[in-house]
Amino acid sequence: MIQDNVRKILEELPAQVELEAAAKTRSVKEIEQAVAGGVKIIGENYVQEAESAQAVIGRKARWHFIGHLQKNKVKKAVKIFDLIETLDSQKLAEALDQAAAGANKVMPVLVEVNSAGEQQKFGVLPERVLSFIKGLLPLNNIKVVGLMTMGPAVGDPAASRPYFEKTKRIFERIKDLDLDGLEMKYLSMGMSDTYQIAIEEGANIVRVGSAIFGPRE
Ligand SMILES: *Cc1c(COP(=O)(O)O)cnc(C)c1O
Predict the structure, then answer these.
(1) Maximum distance among all alpha carbons in the chain?
(2) 108 CB near ligand 1 (under 6 Å)
(3) Degrees to nearest 5, angle at CA 152 with 70 and 110
């Protein structure tokens, strides 16, 4: 079932788009089935869950963090994740930079954009993204490689389109600046009910949970 869901989604994805399985609350067995179906990126909201799953699955997939990262989990997160998708504060950036320096690593990150404005708690407001990113450039042990957004939390999937479009515009504008130390490579947008729209608006990573694993309890 999970394997079939993954195969079907992979068949319809354009070549430049990567499928990330959003694995929160799923068992290691379920995640393994997604990997067997061809998923190459696992998205985790909780450091602890990721750690237990990774202990079994290992590096057969890349591991992305897509939750809200707490300062006391930063060290572990730097160790187990290949990409942190939800950087949204200078404080967190500094903590990640320090932890990555301690681990002798450059930690790739995406900046989370609060594209729907005040409806969400997390993410950098669209008009602040560029100055936020400029403030990160002196931190040598993190590297911004793109943007992530959730879009509006509720409502008709079609209502997400303008927010995806806006995030893509910010992405392109910053990419065109060609700033030193910045590589605008990934645009992570879209979930189970919105990923087709997100792809039309330029996403190259889509984070899909329930369409792979079934509804969450
Ligand atoms: C849960 C989650 C998803 C996937 O949501 P579905 O609606 O189950 O596809 C995507 N992104 C983030 C950040 C999530 O927490």
Answers:
(1) 47
(2) no
(3) 45
123 in Cβ contact with 115 (< 8 Å): yes
Instruction: Answer yes or no: is pLDDT of 120 > 70.
Output: no
Tokens of 59: 């590096």
Which residue type is seen at 179?
L
Residue 139 is which amino acid?
Answer: L
75 near 92, Cβ under 8 Å? no
pTM, 2 dp: 0.97
CA 191 – ligand 1 centroid, Å: 6
Cβ(21)–Cβ(212) below 8 Å = yes
Ligand 1 centroid distance, CA of 21 (Å): 9
pLDDT in tens, 42-80: 999 999 999 999 999 999 999 999 999 999 999 999 999
Q: Are 197 and 190 in contact (CB under 8 A)?
A: yes
State if residue 26 touches ligand 1 by the CB under 6 angstroms criterion.
Answer: no
